[in-house]
Design brief:
Layout: H1 2-12, H2 45-56, H3 60-73, H4 78-90, H5 94-107, H6 112-124, H7 128-139, H8 147-160, H9 164-177, H10 182-194, H11 198-211, H12 216-229, H13 232-245, H14 250-259
Helix pairs in contact: 1-2, 2-3, 2-4, 3-4, 4-5, 5-6, 6-7, 6-8, 7-8, 8-9, 8-10, 9-10, 10-11, 11-12, 12-13, 12-14
């Protein structure tokens, strides 16, 4: 089922554990079971694809309806269990989310997308060591096409534990796998700043901004980097963008507060 595998990849390639909810992360092991391209068709597959399409449009309520229908047709679909777990996680239904992540892994324990998704869930619950085991299992899969996602997630999880050195190691590995992976570049800029490597932080942020979109977080990071390095022109441009694009953001509040110190 190559088509359904590609559809799943579109969503789970970007499953990154920033914030406390996944939105978006994603080498590799010799498959002990069937790869997604080799598995038999499921009656739930069409509903999996529809649910993902609605998720990408931000229509989470319709996505949930579609994936529930898919599970009615095939409760043994690992993909359908994985998608509904993600939806429940976004809705804050954490018990249901964990039940379906575990069911998905019971059905396909070698699937790197499921392993990465469940690892992200565990990390947001503070279960860091268990999360890392799942990221590493995803990375053992020789058919996992986007190891940079699981590596970046492993880095974010390490950073949450306060281990910046390990986080940096994972981000560097992610960038070796994909030198233009935006989230890894952003996280490297962040960890470099936290380690007071300001020139490195600037470089990674500039690389990110060549391919990624401005956000309140990246602009605030840029402001702090340029305060340290003294580039007043770049600092001013970051300030203007933050004020113009994200006037009500928490980062704008922190910037205004920082000026009063």
């Amino acid at each position: 089922m190559k088509k359904i595998a590609l559809t799943i990849a579109v969503l789970f390639t970007h499953l990154i554990i920033l914030g406390c909810a996944p939105n978006s992360t994603r080498t590799n092991e010799e498959m002990g079971g069937l790869s997604q391209d080799q598995k038999a068709p499921s009656a739930a597959d069409v509903y999996v694809k529809m649910s993902i399409a609605y998720l990408q449009q931000g229509k989470i309520d319709i996505a949930l309806i579609k994936i529930k229908r898919g599970l009615e047709l095939d409760p043994m679909s690992a993909d359908a269990n994985n998608i509904i777990a993600l939806i429940y996680e976004r809705l804050g239904e954490l018990v249901l989310a964990e039940q379906h992540y575990k069911k998905a892994l019971d059905l396909n324990s070698n699937d790197p997308y499921i392993l990465n998704a469940y690892g992200g869930f565990l990390c947001t619950q503070g279960k860091y060591q268990e999360a890392n085991l799942h990221f590493m299992a995803a990375l053992k899969n020789a058919l996992y096409p986007t190891p940079e996602v699981a590596l970046t997630n492993a880095g974010i999880c390490s950073a949450r534990q306060g281990d910046l050195n390990q986080a940096e190691t994972y981000y560097r590995q992610a960038l070796r796998a994909n030198s233009k992976f935006p989230t890894a570049l952003q996280q490297m800029a962040k960890v470099s700043f936290e380690k007071k490597n300001y020139l490195s932080a600037r470089g990674y942020l500039q690389r990110y901004l060549e391919i990624g979109q401005y956000s309140a977080e990246t602009l605030w990071l840029g402001i702090r980097i340029e305060r340290e390095l003294g580039d007043l022109d770049t600092l001013a441009s970051y300030k203007l963008l933050l004020r113009a694009k994200f006037p009500d953001s928490e980062e704008m509040r922190m910037f205004e507060e920082s000026k009063r110190r």
